[in-house]
TrEMBL record:
It comes from Aureispira anguillae. Keywords: ATP-binding, Isomerase, Lyase, Metal-binding, Multifunctional enzyme, NAD, NADP, Nucleotide-binding, Potassium. It catalyses: (6S)-NADHX + ADP = AMP + phosphate + NADH + H(+); (6R)-NADPHX = (6S)-NADPHX; (6S)-NADPHX + ADP = AMP + phosphate + NADPH + H(+); (6R)-NADHX = (6S)-NADHX. InterPro entries: Carbohydrate_kinase_pred_CS, CARKD, Nnr, Ribokinase-like, YjeF_N_dom, YjeF_N_dom_sf. Bifunctional enzyme that catalyzes the epimerization of the S- and R-forms of NAD(P)HX and the dehydration of the S-form of NAD(P)HX at the expense of ADP, which is converted to AMP. This allows the repair of both epimers of NAD(P)HX, a damaged form of NAD(P)H that is a result of enzymatic or heat-dependent hydration. This is Bifunctional NAD(P)H-hydrate repair enzyme. Its EC number is 4.2.1.136, 5.1.99.6. The gene is nnrE. PROSITE patterns: YJEF_C_2, YJEF_C_3, YJEF_N. AMP binds at K414, G415, A416, N417, T418, G443. In the C-terminal section; belongs to the NnrD/CARKD family. K(+) binds at N60, D131, T167.
Amino acid sequence: MKILSTTQTREADAYTIAHEPILSIDLMERASRTFTSWFVKKFPKSTFEMVSVICGKGNNGGDGLAIARLLEERGYDVAVFILNLTDNETEDFKTNLERVRQLQDLNKVVIKEVSSVEEMPVFGGDEILIDAMLGSGLNRPITGALADILHFLNECENTVVAVDVPTGVFTDMPTVGACIEADYTFAFEFPKLAFLFPENFHYVGDFVCASIGLDQKYIASVDSPYYYITSDIVKRIYKRRDKFAHKGVFGHALLIMGSYGKMGAAILATRACLRAGVGLVTVHVPICGYEVMQTAVPEAMVSLDEDRFIFTKVYDLPKYSTIAIGCGLSTKNRTRNALCYMLKHLNRPTVLDADALNILGQSPDWFEYIPKGSILTPHPKEFERMFGKVYDNFERNELQRRKAQEFGVYIILKGANTCVATPEGVCYFNSTGNPGMGTAGSGDVLTGILAGLLSQEYDPLEACILGVYIHGLAGDIAAEVESEESLTAGDLVNYLGKAFLKLRKL
Ligand SMILES: NC(=O)C1=CN([C@@H]2O[C@H](COP(=O)(O)OP(=O)(O)OC[C@H]3O[C@@H](n4cnc5c(N)ncnc54)[C@H](OP(=O)(O)O)[C@@H]3O)[C@@H](O)[C@H]2O)[C@@H](O)CC1
Ligand SMILES: Nc1ncnc2c1ncn2[C@@H]1O[C@H](COP(=O)(O)OP(=O)(O)O)[C@@H](O)[C@H]1O
Ligand SMILES: [K+]
């Protein structure tokens, strides 16, 4: 799913109105119906005493008024609060206000105008609040009377659901000024870029998005560097196995991993590589890892280093279809030199994780040796060690895109919405996964999956997108059974099979 900027969304909006064609007020009605259909399922009437819709005077407020009317039709008790802080009212706001006034005349809805925080009501505990104050039309940081109202609302204990954008959040740049702290945000058509960055979680809460029928051909024609990885993208990538396929066609991965005390990382990655479907896997480990690897992963072959404790040398690189290096590797000098030598002599995309990235962070000159099309999988700390500190996630995302382009590599920045940046500067944000995956070894599993997919001749971009999605999906299935708290990296490997099954049914 493509993510558009606010300006592009406005253009898509106008294009849809002109070419569907549809009246602007009817598009608002369709958007509001989409919201309402979701809302009534999420918050059944029986669970809340009352819904209070707080509206601005722009189109976000217009949506709020339409939603108030639609909820009343569905039997909800509805009150509407209109913020009287400006004289600028949009036409569609006015039309919807007229329609709600008709309900007020029938005593079906209460409407109240509010000009300051002192005029805000005391909400009951069972009341749910819908934030339709401002949406994508925010054009300056919120201060003054509106800021006071937002602070007041944030102090209330009520569940808050934002329409399209939580009031005060800038969708395409860092947010400053007062904001509503929503528990849920229902975004029209696609999530906004800001929703994908952790600093905004506090305002956005859990977000969902659904199509309001904007022109898909127009959206497809718009240039945007941002995508959200949903099942439609993954479905196109996933390849079913051929009836006559055999292990020879699924590649032979070499994983260079593990050091004394950190052999578990190699085990997790190797198991994940196998579960991701590799034909053959060889793990290169120091001598101390021999027995543990042979015992823990009987399916894997073991290549032994000359050193007892760390990685120092590996032979026969050309015979492997894919190489992944770094999990639990250590950053000792001889390992550093061995990595440098390898990078200079490899000529195909390689997966670099953990200590391989930490070593690169210590020796930035070596970035140019990384084979083009390789995949780097830093978590934010490793990213910082490689590329330096940033102020916020917009800046980090810019830096990530720039570095991916500069070095011709894929950079997977791991986190709640893991982001894959491509050598072309495009970003794909993952939609699967949960906080249960914040557990030791989760990243090693991802590295194993990526090596397994590359071995099966998924190209690097396909491997990145499918890899992060299926890794998160395994995490989501595992969390449903095991709970987020108890989820371990080993569970991610164990549930990978169920994730593939789910993928096949998409
Ligand atoms: N294609 C779609 O997705 C569709 C989108 N739709 C909906 O339209 C929404 C966008 O509507 P919009 O453009 O009318 O802007 P909106 O968010 O209501 O705000 C405008 C008002 O904000 C005010 N204002 C701004 N900053 C402020 C500040 N700091 N402090 C105080 N005031 C401030 C500004 O005031 P002014 O600058 O004039 O003083 C103006 O009055 C979008 O989010 C979605 O809900 C759907 O209806 C259908 C299809
Ligand atoms: N809150 C979260 N939501 C979704 N995925 C998460 C979350 N926290 C962590 N993850 C995922 O778990 C993995 C953690 O990787 P990493 O930090 O490298 O772990 P380790 O170094 O222990 O292997 C990443 O793939 C990341 O995307
Ligand atoms: K809003």
